[in-house]
Structure formats: structure tokens, C-alpha cells
Amino acid sequence: MTLPKSRESFQAELVAADPSTDVALLKIDGHDLPYATLADSDLGEVGDVVLAVGNPFELNQTVTQGIISAKGRSNVGPGGNFYGNFIQTDAAINPGNSGGALVDSAG
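The structure assignment produced for this chain is given below.
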């Protein structure tokens, strides 16, 4: 992992992964790293403008725009075996960025 402004690199340790949802948890050792403040996703409403940030198809720094189409979706995916309470968006979510941030228009 490389931080864009500092060009400092870190080795990441894979803590856990769920291939069925394309999500992984990584751990790095570092100090004073930038971070995103998490918001309360319950405050988002259908129709809110959102941005999906990610790395689809290994294309770095990709952002797509859409709206929240629905909230509380469950039984998503083949066979309906995935987790529930999803936020549905029409922003493009391609393989590789489904673990990226979904942020509102204020970031």
C-alpha cells in the first residue's frame, strides 16, 4: 500500500477475506496515518447522491457517482446467501471496488 502524498509504502497483512462479497480486512503497521471518518449509514436516504470509490479491474483511484436506490436489501446474490441490510446504489460497482468506500456528496 502506498500513500499518495508521502509515497511511503507499507506491507499489508491479510487478516480476513470473504471472496463471496469481495471484501478483505488488511492490517498495516504505521503511525499518524490518514483515515476516513465513518458516518452513520442509517442517515442516508433513498435519492441521496453518493460516490463509490475503489480499484475496479486494478484501475487505481476510480470514482463513480449514483444515488441510493434502496436501503435494507437482503438475500442479495446467487442463491440469496449473502448478508442482509445492504444499501443499493446505481453507482457502478465493478469487481475489485466493492470493498471501497460509498460516500455521500459531502465525502
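Interim note for the steering committee: The radius of gyration is 15 Å. The mean pLDDT is 81.
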